[in-house]
Specification:
Belongs to the universal ribosomal protein uL14 family. The chain is mainly beta. Helix content is about 10%, strand content about 40%. It has a single domain, classed as Ribosomal Protein L14 (Beta Barrel). The strands form three sheets. It has a five-stranded mixed barrel with strand order 1-2-3-4-7. The chain has a two-stranded antiparallel ribbon with strand order 5-6. It has a two-stranded parallel sheet with strand order 8-9.
Length: about 120
């Protein structure tokens, strides 16, 4: 359950480290984001000498969430942290060249095959 003002980890090598969600995309009344949902975030912490800077407003897709996510087979998946990957606003392709940590297979089912191909581990 990622909602506006949630603090998330940016799990790619674009330069951002920590971000704050301020809009969940989808419907005008959509309150919570789950795995594979698009969000708008503001970068709170960033690495020096990288293309992403502090206070940048970017689109991202949720790849990990602390709240348990129910799969179609009835099992649940849960991660240790809330994490996102920054994506292009138009094509929804990842800006970075690497994705750190595991991701769930629901991302490739929701149309983010390029993020799934960059990930080291799919759970």
């Amino acid at each position: 359950m990622i909602q506006p003002r949630s603090i998330v980890k940016i799990a790619d090598n674009s330069g951002g480290k920590i971000g704050r969600i301020f809009k969940v995309l989808g419907s005008s009344r959509k309150r919570y984001a789950q795995l594979g949902d698009l969000v708008v975030l503001s970068v709170q912490k960033a690495e020096p000498r990288k293309p992403i800077k502090k206070k940048d407003v970017l689109w991202a897709v949720v790849i990990r969430q602390r709240n348990a996510y129910r799969r179609r087979d009835g099992s649940y998946i849960r991660f240790d942290e809330n994490a996102v990957v920054i994506v292009d606003k138009v094509k929804h392709e990842p800006i970075a060249g690497r994705v750190f940590g595991p991701i769930s297979r629901e991302l490739s089912e929701k149309g983010f095959q390029s993020i799934a191909s960059l990930a080291a581990e799919i759970v």
